[in-house]
């Protein structure tokens, strides 16, 4: 209750008032609560404190502390925890196995992630498959991500929203435009997964990254919802990548309309104009920023070419 409400101070006070030795459940509540509140460092501190008091973690404890390691991309901590898991014989547990696959993938160690994954005989759930697909996609192994996706289907595991986001990201990174379009269509028509904003942004990135700006523009026009800042930021980044002044101007205006005090679209549009030698355009952007009181903060741009990874 305390941790879910992020009332950490009250939780710690209550914890300190409990008699020793503390139960595994109590320690796990503190560790999982910290991890769920995106406070991975605190979760790891509680885990170390638990071990220093000879507390014995269970499956839920390990899953929570591995989640903390994932959030921090702390491979060293994750490996130490994995070693202890193996030592006490929890390495065959399905929940812990999934958490280990995810931890190694998010820490960029796909070799270890794959090793744990392959050892999970008949215990792989959709979360484990997704961790592998997304991990490969984000770490630059697009072909491996697509191979795992095909293997997942052969294993009769139904893909979900996260699966397709990972697969589309892989297609985008690998320049597999036609394949990505086919997978997106299959996601909707065959699997009945309705596209979220991030799926749509990924498709725009897929088209735009590889120079299909007209297709990206048409995709936006055909959306059945009003494009948000993620959509326009992705499109604007693609326009900058390929130096398209006209489309970039349109995307920037849309993004500025949604987030008028964010300097990112102004700066990116200015870069597009500068790259094409349109100095009048550069000066016009700077003038608009001054008129609207928008300040450029170094390194603060929220716009990235990589939507899902």
TrEMBL record:
Keywords: Repeat. One of its GO terms (biological process) is RNA modification. PPR repeats lie at residues 23-57, 125-159. The keyword Repeat applies. Gene3D superfamilies: Tetratricopeptide repeat domain (1.25.40.10). Pfam families: E_motif, PPR, PPR_2. One of its GO terms (molecular function) is RNA binding. The keyword Repeat applies. This is Pentatricopeptide repeat-containing protein, mitochondrial. It comes from Sesamum calycinum.
């Amino acid at each position: 209750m305390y941790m879910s409400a992020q009332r950490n101070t009250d939780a710690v006070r209550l914890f300190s008032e409990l008699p020793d030795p503390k139960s595994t459940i109590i320690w796990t509540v503190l560790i999982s609560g910290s991890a769920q509140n995106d406070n991975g460092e605190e979760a790891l501190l509680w885990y170390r404190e638990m071990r220093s008091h000879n507390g014995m973690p269970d499956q839920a404890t390990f899953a929570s502390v591995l989640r903390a390691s994932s959030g921090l991309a702390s491979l060293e901590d994750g490996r130490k925890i994995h070693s202890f898991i193996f030592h006490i014989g929890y390495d065959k547990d399905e929940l812990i196995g999934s958490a280990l696959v995810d931890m190694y993938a998010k820490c960029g160690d796909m070799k270890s992630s794959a090793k744990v994954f392959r050892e999970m005989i008949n215990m792989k759930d959709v979360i484990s498959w997704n961790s592998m697909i997304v991990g490969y996609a984000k770490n630059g192994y697009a072909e491996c991500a697509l191979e795992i996706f095909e293997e997942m289907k052969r294993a009769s595991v139904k893909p979900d929203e996260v699966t397709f986001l990972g697969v589309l990201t892989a297609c985008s990174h690998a320049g597999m435009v036609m394949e990505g379009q086919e997978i997106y269509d299959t996601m909707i028509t065959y699997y009945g997964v309705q596209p979220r904003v991030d799926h749509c942004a990924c498709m725009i990135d897929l088209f735009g990254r590889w120079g299909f700006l007209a297709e990206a523009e048409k995709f936006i026009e055909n959306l059945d919802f009003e494009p948000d800042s993620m959509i326009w930021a992705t499109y604007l980044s693609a326009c900058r990548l390929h130096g398209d002044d006209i489309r970039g101007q349109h995307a920037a205006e849309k993004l500025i309309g949604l987030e008028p005090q964010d300097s990112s679209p102004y700066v990116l549009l200015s870069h597009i104009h500068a790259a094409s030698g349109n100095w009048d355009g550069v000066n016009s952007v700077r003038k608009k920023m001054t008129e609207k009181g928008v300040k450029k903060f170094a390194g603060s741009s929220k716009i990235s070419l990589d939507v899902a990874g």
